[in-house]
Amino acid sequence: MTSLEFSFAIEQLSHSLRPFALRLTKDAEDANDLLQETALKAIVHQAKFAEGTNLKAWMYTIMKNTFITNYQRLVRRNTFIDTTENLHYLNAPSQVTENLAYGAFTMDDINKAFSEVDDTYKVPFLMYFRGFKYHEIAEQLAIPIGTVKNRIHIARKELKARLQSYRKG
């Protein structure tokens, strides 16, 4: 694929990427920036795109990873570390400490709900949760990658149903 064809394909995909960018950023201007940054990264890294693979999926992955990187950068930038000798902020009455019992009850409920999930779905879900990639899970369990994705999806769905009481709104 020539650079011109590649650029044209990216331009055509921008219309389907925009709703995803809006869902991620929750702001039209930020979505436009994310879309532009995604297109730029795709063009710069055109050589890394394997001909014959799904360009749309590749672009979605670039967008998701760009959003995550930007979000982490924003969080680090907004983190305030007090290095002064004065402990005024630590002892200010506006600081509230929550009772950790709520967290313990929540963890108990999560563990109970998770123990009720069938091992067929639990094992791939746990591996994914621990950071394994889909293809690594598929290799380890000797099952197709589509089956791995399906089992993880079912485990999430079951956990969501069992933990319905924690749903907000």
Automatic annotation (TrEMBL):
<dbReference type="InterPro" id="IPR013325">
    <property type="entry name" value="RNA_pol_sigma_r2"/>
</dbReference>
<feature type="domain" description="RNA polymerase sigma factor 70 region 4 type 2">
    <location>
        <begin position="111"/>
        <end position="159"/>
    </location>
</feature>
<dbReference type="Pfam" id="PF04542">
    <property type="entry name" value="Sigma70_r2"/>
</dbReference>
<dbReference type="InterPro" id="IPR013324">
    <property type="entry name" value="RNA_pol_sigma_r3/r4-like"/>
</dbReference>
<comment type="similarity">
    <text>Belongs to the sigma-70 factor family. ECF subfamily.</text>
</comment>
<dbReference type="InterPro" id="IPR007627">
    <property type="entry name" value="RNA_pol_sigma70_r2"/>
</dbReference>
<feature type="domain" description="RNA polymerase sigma-70 region 2">
    <location>
        <begin position="10"/>
        <end position="74"/>
    </location>
</feature>
<keyword id="KW-0805">Transcription regulation</keyword>
<dbReference type="Pfam" id="PF08281">
    <property type="entry name" value="Sigma70_r4_2"/>
</dbReference>
<dbReference type="GO" id="GO:0003677">
    <property type="term" value="F:DNA binding"/>
</dbReference>
<dbReference type="InterPro" id="IPR014284">
    <property type="entry name" value="RNA_pol_sigma-70_dom"/>
</dbReference>
<protein>
    <submittedName>
        <fullName>RNA polymerase sigma-70 factor, ECF subfamily</fullName>
    </submittedName>
</protein>
<dbReference type="GO" id="GO:0006352">
    <property type="term" value="P:DNA-templated transcription initiation"/>
</dbReference>
<keyword id="KW-0731">Sigma factor</keyword>
<dbReference type="InterPro" id="IPR039425">
    <property type="entry name" value="RNA_pol_sigma-70-like"/>
</dbReference>
<keyword id="KW-0804">Transcription</keyword>
<dbReference type="InterPro" id="IPR036388">
    <property type="entry name" value="WH-like_DNA-bd_sf"/>
</dbReference>
<dbReference type="InterPro" id="IPR013249">
    <property type="entry name" value="RNA_pol_sigma70_r4_t2"/>
</dbReference>
<dbReference type="GO" id="GO:0016987">
    <property type="term" value="F:sigma factor activity"/>
</dbReference>
